Amino acid sequence: MTHLRYGGDYNPEQWPEEVWAEDVELMRRAGVNTVTVGVFSWARIEPRPGERDFGWLDRVLDLLHAGGIDVFLATPTASPPPWLGHRFPETLPVDFDGHRLSYGSRNQFCPSSPVYREHALSLVTDLAERYGGHPALKLWHVGNELGQVCHCDVTAEHFRRWLRDRHGSLDALNDAWSTAFWSQRYGEWAEVIPPRRAPYLINPAQRLDFARFCSDALLECFVAERDVLRRVTPDVPATTNFMGLQQPMDYWELARHEDVVSHDWYPDPADPTSHVMSALSFDLMRSLKRGPWLLMEQAASAVNWRRRNPPKPAGQLRAQSVQAVARGADAVCFFQWRASRGGAEKYHSGMVPHAGTDSRVFREVVALGADLRALAPVAGAPVPASVAVVLDWESWWAAQLDAHPSGDFDLVTRLRDFYEPLFDLGVTVDFAHPSGDLSGYRLVVAPNLYLVRDAEPLVSYAAGGGTVVMGFFSGVVDEHDRVHLGGYPAPFRELLGLRVEEMVPLGPDEVLTCASASLGEFTADFWYDDLRAEGAEVVATVVGSGADGVPVVLRNRYGAGTAWYVGTRPSPDFMRRLMDRVVAEAGAGPASRPPRGVEVVRRGDVLFVVNHGTSEVRVDVPGDHVDLLTGASVTGSVALGEFGVAALAPALPSGG
Amino acid sequence: MTHLRYGGDYNPEQWPEEVWAEDVELMRRAGVNTVTVGVFSWARIEPRPGERDFGWLDRVLDLLHAGGIDVFLATPTASPPPWLGHRFPETLPVDFDGHRLSYGSRNQFCPSSPVYREHALSLVTDLAERYGGHPALKLWHVGNELGQVCHCDVTAEHFRRWLRDRHGSLDALNDAWSTAFWSQRYGEWAEVIPPRRAPYLINPAQRLDFARFCSDALLECFVAERDVLRRVTPDVPATTNFMGLQQPMDYWELARHEDVVSHDWYPDPADPTSHVMSALSFDLMRSLKRGPWLLMEQAASAVNWRRRNPPKPAGQLRAQSVQAVARGADAVCFFQWRASRGGAEKYHSGMVPHAGTDSRVFREVVALGADLRALAPVAGAPVPASVAVVLDWESWWAAQLDAHPSGDFDLVTRLRDFYEPLFDLGVTVDFAHPSGDLSGYRLVVAPNLYLVRDAEPLVSYAAGGGTVVMGFFSGVVDEHDRVHLGGYPAPFRELLGLRVEEMVPLGPDEVLTCASASLGEFTADFWYDDLRAEGAEVVATVVGSGADGVPVVLRNRYGAGTAWYVGTRPSPDFMRRLMDRVVAEAGAGPASRPPRGVEVVRRGDVLFVVNHGTSEVRVDVPGDHVDLLTGASVTGSVALGEFGVAALAPALPSGG
Amino acid sequence: MTHLRYGGDYNPEQWPEEVWAEDVELMRRAGVNTVTVGVFSWARIEPRPGERDFGWLDRVLDLLHAGGIDVFLATPTASPPPWLGHRFPETLPVDFDGHRLSYGSRNQFCPSSPVYREHALSLVTDLAERYGGHPALKLWHVGNELGQVCHCDVTAEHFRRWLRDRHGSLDALNDAWSTAFWSQRYGEWAEVIPPRRAPYLINPAQRLDFARFCSDALLECFVAERDVLRRVTPDVPATTNFMGLQQPMDYWELARHEDVVSHDWYPDPADPTSHVMSALSFDLMRSLKRGPWLLMEQAASAVNWRRRNPPKPAGQLRAQSVQAVARGADAVCFFQWRASRGGAEKYHSGMVPHAGTDSRVFREVVALGADLRALAPVAGAPVPASVAVVLDWESWWAAQLDAHPSGDFDLVTRLRDFYEPLFDLGVTVDFAHPSGDLSGYRLVVAPNLYLVRDAEPLVSYAAGGGTVVMGFFSGVVDEHDRVHLGGYPAPFRELLGLRVEEMVPLGPDEVLTCASASLGEFTADFWYDDLRAEGAEVVATVVGSGADGVPVVLRNRYGAGTAWYVGTRPSPDFMRRLMDRVVAEAGAGPASRPPRGVEVVRRGDVLFVVNHGTSEVRVDVPGDHVDLLTGASVTGSVALGEFGVAALAPALPSGG
After folding, report:
1. I want to staple A301 with a disulfide (CB 3.0 to 4.6 A). Which of A349, A383, B481, C223 is the partner?
2. Which residues of A touch C79 (CB under 8 A)?
3. CATH number for the domain running over B387-586
4. Rounded Cα distance, B404 and B354, in Å
5. According to its UniProt record, which protein family does this protein belong to (chains A, B, C) (predicted)?
6. Residue A1: pLDDT band by 50, 70, 90 thresholds?
């Protein structure tokens, strides 16, 4: 990469053809160099089964290419046309309650449907063959925001095939699903079905395997398309756009099968702390394939799908876009180029808003184009991190099944509990799969690892000198959601030097007072483990209440390394103190400790500073820099106003 | 009309025949002169398909007539008998989720069902032929509270026929529905269906057309019955009872097809401000056909369908009934004469309560009969108004579709925001359709006109010297829910002298501080428009916060008239100050400015004063009057206790 | 009974056979003498239709017997295997909305299904024949927590047969169901169906009869199994486990058909007042067959099905178990012996927890075994009570139908309103059916008797010298949910000496101030009756507000007895004062008036004192006692710490 891509979803089929030329002219004015075409074009390309209408798309691609605009071409398979659902109702998805969903929206397909897949692949083949050689084509954009789930009988048959592959025999499935409980033993394969609405709690291992299956079924859909595309255009990479922390698909697995990671991200303008979860999602995207990624969709201003959808305040779009680049994005793109006049998403803002080009939004879009040109030097550059946060989709699926100690347990919240203090300290993190290679990190944080197939990688990592921090409700079950017996968290008990007898969820108004000799007093809520140290040093305990003296933060030397356990949910303030110490002890710093609301992150040799707040701040940046965005020299510190940003490259040594 | 009708729904089939004679005697004692018979009698009249049992109804009508009681005879088509649903399940409605609803309640029919319609019309024909000449018959009461919606396949076929009529071609429908978005293009008519449960947002133009269709389908049901009745009894008028501000049916359209407007209204006794919405609903009813209307149903005391159903406090029934007469009612009727012993509405109060005639409720019913006799002079008289509030059902349907800037936007609340200050000022208003004749009004208030087919009537009205007040989220879309581009509200931008770039919904706890040089400081919430004046005078702006300086109230001279824009939701106190000024400038007064909670409204030459509060008040009424209710002379002012009322006719000039 | 049974559900099929021997050893260590086997074993015993696999169960029962452990053997019919739902989908239940529920959970059967019943009875027959003579077998445990409801067409046919039996003719049904309202008259039997999702309110009499039918259908299932068991093993008693205050089944009726009452009870450890409802449920269980009952299930610590599931604090299990024995339990059992490793209830604690035997929970389980051995002297002893609280399932069903004066009316809350002050006073109560024999009681409390078939028993009871206390919303309807006319509560007006004209539900924030000359001032909320005394003495009235002077507590001499009426919901403090006086006047004491949170109850000649609070208390216990649990002498008073208990037997007179 020698530059950053800038652009957005371009849906010319929504507009009269005479608008297209104006579009290209405005794109050039804004510095747009890439657009995604065709995401929702199935019905336009194939208005009736088997027909093909490519003429309009030929003209669009030629026009873009003539204007110097590259194209990410979508396979339009996420949104089948009405005729598919009408003629083949079996392609429509069935929900948990047994309702077959209708067309009239989007995404209405059963991922297991051979009829859907056949129609989709036929179209993808023709699309690839027609445009594989088009000079504007730079990337295949497969489908859109995969996440469909179906409970129909076709899915059931597919699920059974998948289960046979996974478990081998029905006896193994009965064992894995603990069907001896509640008289659920299956006597023949035909009896096995997806989870469906039932009188009471559903078998959790069945639900867990169904979550795995759903992810795999979508992966099959993706791979089937990718294989067609690879066959026809072996040199054109393929992606499918992710959506941050979404449960339905295991993004680690999906990322393995795509060529580049792309990401759709929509922070809420009404949330003044949204930049924290943005950073988290960007770090995750960068980690999935350990490299640059594409911000495939963001909004120029408001979205349309929240209860309240305010526009972005002036300047926020720039701050958010630079934040993405700072954390590894090589593209900054939008849904969508031109705000729709009609349809379900017309109040989703566009780069060209309803108000037209004489508008704050369009002026910011033009300015952002110039900023991104100035940031070209970071394209392709890595973002260094010495801390990894562990995230595992199957553990997530299992941890949020029902009938657990707390129905309020939310993995994303738990990730944030540990991520935010690191963010506040200015420590950049990667994400890692628990079975992945952790050797490059000084510190590995596991906010939650409820399900553990194999504890060995983490245990070895610590034994070899690494530092591990682990949160509660970890190490509880195996891959079949069966409890590791003998006291929680059995697979990590030795590593952590402790034993949990019972887990204690707290009421919404319950607050614990805790104390640590080294880290001071603090409050905690939500949960605590009734545990005792078995070798670990007790760093903090509950004070008073029925839990007086129960350890809540522990530290255990293990082999050449260290393992911390946080058995409650301490206040954010304490979490910053704790992580500051952990980072320092692990040598995982430096911690830049920027002012609150300010983000500091290094990409390549450029130090990005972003003020997500509304007050002016001054941030220390030791040494001499040049701000790529302004060309100004910066020495020692930089002042940033509301949504201010700086991209500080090392100043060339001056003569003299 | 030379008198006011007084009575209620009379359901003698619920009681042994020996009770009927007592009923008539008690009606006479209470001054009841009219009852509605047969609303729920289908199964009694037609116990098995094709049978007819009219004997009991003959006796009821004869008995009533002998007692001097007039009859509104209902076509009992709102509640089909069990045999219809049992034998013809296709007549049962299907909901959005695809559930076919059961009988065992009421209203269980698909308005598009030919089987339902055929059975209904056959019964209506026989009913009309049997009783068309009965001397007690004064009015046909068609069905009951129309509002059924169905999503079944029969409805789908009907919907397609309706869409063909409306759009002509499938290309036109695809264009109108913006189906280029999300790959929704229809390739043949058979694919087009009602909105049904789908994976995500439904096409809004499809939903809007379906709302129109549902209203029209019910209208067809009404017209089909009315045509039978007109053929048989050309001189007997027909109505169907409305329910105030109900979304499913366009009451403007329905009112055009009936002979007189009738209204069911149930204020909540637990709401001390319910009289405001009562007034609003009564003004709407009066406006639908520009004349007197019938209060067809109210409750003598408690209802049964709210979460909590307290009885009316002593005196409130009288105040509410007189309020209806003051605002144009020529009838005051109840659901129902005798409270049921059994069934789903037995806790809905009756004129004769469970406790019997030795009860406060029955005594109030008797007293009300006398009051209504005293108010006979106002029967048929008009209620003058120089202000019109604009209300358009299709705009309402569109404004409350989903995926909008604010999911909390509620048209009824917006109407009240503008109606209540006028009510508080003692200014009587009419309602008007935006394409209606506005020439008789000094002031036209459009709290919201989200969907605009044709801005011309309002614009011309202002150009010709009228004053218009418009609220935010107006002028946004065309009849197909497609945005009018170029800055909101495009069709009214010239009229209003301003341009909105973005719409800003506020959070539930966000409050703006605003200031106006002429009208003082105030707070506002819910929403503001990010707008700039393009010619309009800025009357008020936001002060402080991120929106500092944004105009929120503007005033524009346009032609010979004036247009005001209110781009936020000011506090009620400011709205009173603002509307006081607007009314004064427009010459739309006089504003009587009664004490809080007191209603002052003129009908014919009688000035009604109603105290809806619990404290004694004294109200200025310049001149000499006689209170029709008491015969007392009133000079200069009148004192009213809790729920006190006065009906002040001009005193005849005394000799001397 | 010469001892108390101690044990729990034992599900060895969840564990490898090598664990079984350890189980028996641990049971013996804990003092377990009885376990329930087979509750969820259908699929294990009958893995395919018609097969039988009893070998494992033979080994389990033999092993238990060899270890000296008695067995309650379950008929595993509550949880059919997957093959039943797969091969016979008509056995799966259909919910109110029309969804056919799936297997994959438990309880998925239609109680009316002949296919289900045939398979269930065939299995029960074989089970009885195989194990009827096993020496370990002491009790049949039929099904599990009966409560299934189904709305399918097979159920509809069964419902119609039941209705024919009940009503005789369709005319009688039409009359009973008040079908004249809303045109619901049935013309033939085939039209009659269960309540199903409909456009609006469902006929309440239909819903009431359906509630009766559902209870009877489950009763049929129970009786069918019991008859098989009685035929094969006439000497082995049968029970089915109840769940306290559950609406679906009329436990009075079910208890009549079983040999002993058993009870599953799960107080929430997060609720510091849960012991009150525990006491209430225990008193109810004791009353159902007027004798000892079995605590068939409780949790050793946490459960898994609430939103938050904390463990029990140390000591609470003991206090709760002793409480059950004090109120008549002859068994203290658990769900389940060993906490599951997998499945939907793995976080439901077991007597052997996940942490194993080196755990607080297991240590408490062992200690409890010793405590129960010490309490053997009370086995079989009665619990004397001179107060009865009236509870009637069909009135409960009717009182909680919809479209009532208050949708927040909850019978269980109403029971507690009257039960808790009696509990606080240390007055032990029985429960009684309103048509039952009340002659043995000094005081009968009817917190609510909405539906009254026959007022005579209560009226006669008072006339004969008894004291009755009745709460509001009583005596309103007959057995067909038709109002008793003439002023509420018509059947009790003479008894109570008053007449209610209207019922007034209050808003959630409304509080009445009330005053009583003899009992002082108090507040009240939720409801008041607009009533006037007709002979009764007014004990308390509302003061101020719109209800000033309305009587809310009245006392009426009737025959040789007294009737009190409480027409509002007074504060708990006033309820204690009121019930203290009522108990004293009725001679229904003595009231021991223990400290708050302390329970005092006599069983046989043992006085139980239980401290449910966390503070140490001293409780007066006149006379000389020996604490069965400790052997300590107690004279005059006893001190109890957190969750402390004492079981005080009279001290044998010492020589001297």
Report:
1. A349
2. 182-184
3. 3.40.50.880
4. 48
5. Belongs to the glycosyl hydrolase 42 family.
6. low
